[in-house]
Amino acid sequence: MKALTVLVADDHASVRRSLLSFLRARRDVEIVGEASDGVDVVAQSERLHPDLVLIDADMPGQNGFQATREIKLRLPGTKVVVLSLHGEEIYRQTAGWHLADAFIVKSSIKHDLLEVLANEQHRRSEGSFTTGV
After folding, report:
1. pLDDT (tens digit, 9 = 90+) per residue, 15-38?
2. Number of domains present in the structure of the chain
């Protein structure tokens, strides 16, 4: 099966590095780009057409929620997962309102991200996607 193409967006370089390191260890993932703000992640998404975008909710300029909505409206086939330090229900609801396919609290990112990646690989082989919003 073709590798899942992923774009990672977080304004903290250390978080991006950690996510990229985690993803690079997987043979079924190809990292196609990284961004540090909402405007850049939207532009890169339009240019690269990734299968999956991992996007921090709280970034400078255009926040991750706004960027998620733009990406989903422009590229409806791209799956977008919002990442947040905050686990309160309002953040999960806000992600859903902005058309996110899933929401992950950063404290459980490795476990939950594995589930999202597995779901997306399954969706690609079966033709459906299970959301986590």
Report:
1. 999 999 999 999 999 999 999 999
2. 1
Among residues 33, 89, 88, 85, the alpha carbon closest in space to that of 64 is found at 85
Q: Contact, 54 vs 7, CB < 8 A?
A: yes
Q: What's the CATH code of the domain at 50?
A: 3.40.50.2300
Is the distance from CB of 56 to CB of 83 less than 8 angstroms?
Answer: yes
42-96 residue pLDDT tens? 999 999 999 999 999 999 889 999 999 999 999 999 999 999 999 999 999 999 9
For the chain, give the number of residues: 133
User: Is 85 part of any domain?
Assistant: yes
Please give the Cα distance from 120 to 28 (Å, whole number).
Answer: 11
Cα–Cα distance, 2 to 19 (Å, whole number) = 21
Query: Residue 35 and residue 39: Cα distance in Å, rounded?
Result: 9
**Structural domain harbouring 42:** 4-126
